[in-house]
Amino acid sequence: MSLVSALAIYFIIWWLVLFVVLPFGVRSQHEAGDVTLGTEHGAPERPQLARKFAITTAIAAIVFAAVYVAFGVYMFSLEDMIH
């Protein structure tokens, strides 16, 4: 697996994991009872994006390591999944 391929695969895994992690622990301003003037009632009260990016990076690294071991070390291919 080349460096460019590895980076592309990690980037795709990171985005997929981000969309899974984003809804965790989100409370809307309406649910919290503290709606800021001029914002949507369904907007997150505190999105904690830095924390979610860190969690996403850690989970994506673990998933990428598993993919790298399967495809890079053990030479597992997509054709092997058919048979």
Please describe what this structure looks like.
This protein has 83 residues and is an all-alpha fold. The chain has one domain. 64% of the residues lie in helices and 0% in strands. The chain has 4 helices and no strands. Helix 1 crosses helix 3. The radius of gyration is 19 Å and the shape is elongated. The chain starts with a helix and ends with a helix. The mean pLDDT is 89.
State Rg: 19 Å
Structural class: mainly alpha
Mean pLDDT: 89
- List unreliable stretches of 5+ residues: none
User: Can you count the helices?
Assistant: 4
Measured as a percent range, the helix fraction is 55-70%
Compute the separation of the termini in Å: 22 Å
How much of the sequence is in beta strands?
Answer: under 5%
Largest sheet features: none
Number of strands: 0
Compressed to H and E, one letter per element, the order equals: HHHH
Overall domain count? 1
**What is the overall shape?**
elongated
Throw out a few tags for this protein:
83 residues; mainly alpha; 4 helices; elongated
Task: Please specify the SSE layout and strand pairing.
Elements: H1 3-21, H2 29-32, H3 49-73, H4 78-82
Helix pairs in contact: 1-3
Q: What does this entry show, briefly?
A:
The chain is an all-alpha fold and 83 residues long. It has helices at residues 3-21, 29-32, 49-73, 78-82.
